[in-house]
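To illustrate this point, what follows is a protein record of this kind.

___
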Amino acid sequence: MNPLKILIADDEALIRMDMKELLEEAGHEVVGEAPNGRRAVELAKKLKPDLCIFDVKMPEMDGIEAAKIVGKEKIAPVVLLTAFSQPEFVKRASDAGVQAYLVKPVQEANLFPAIEVAMSRYQDLQGLEDELFKVKDTLEMRKLLDRAKGILMDAHNISESEAFNRIQKYSMAKRKTIKEVAEAIIRAATK
């Protein structure tokens, strides 16, 4: 595993110190430490770590709520540490988008595999989101293109393929994307 920049949040200073030592001995860099969830979110936004490790039970804001914010803003994957393994905590963590969940006391043999799984899941999720964005963009472009072709077909009494050829030629001549040309045709028709 490549060295990671990691943010640790736990209200117990001794646990943060032990975790930091364990991570640094493995070649990772602890870029920040927080005693509560609110500070953890602030540091995550500021430091942009590769990974966050949060305790569940912390003052001001618990680790699950902090993880939810960090995940929603796509800052970094989150591994939750907790002394609690009750189903309601696990469900809340899962709903918050946490990539891994470890029960204390954390052992080196469990921590590093959990980090690898969290990083892998996060990268997979980012890839899926990128793919979804491309599909949505393609679908939007198709809708615009179909609408623009329809406008040209009605206005000039031409076939669909001729309407597309005109859009394509104009696109190349003006060095604009087909989407930009389609949007311009639609704007002009709605004025």
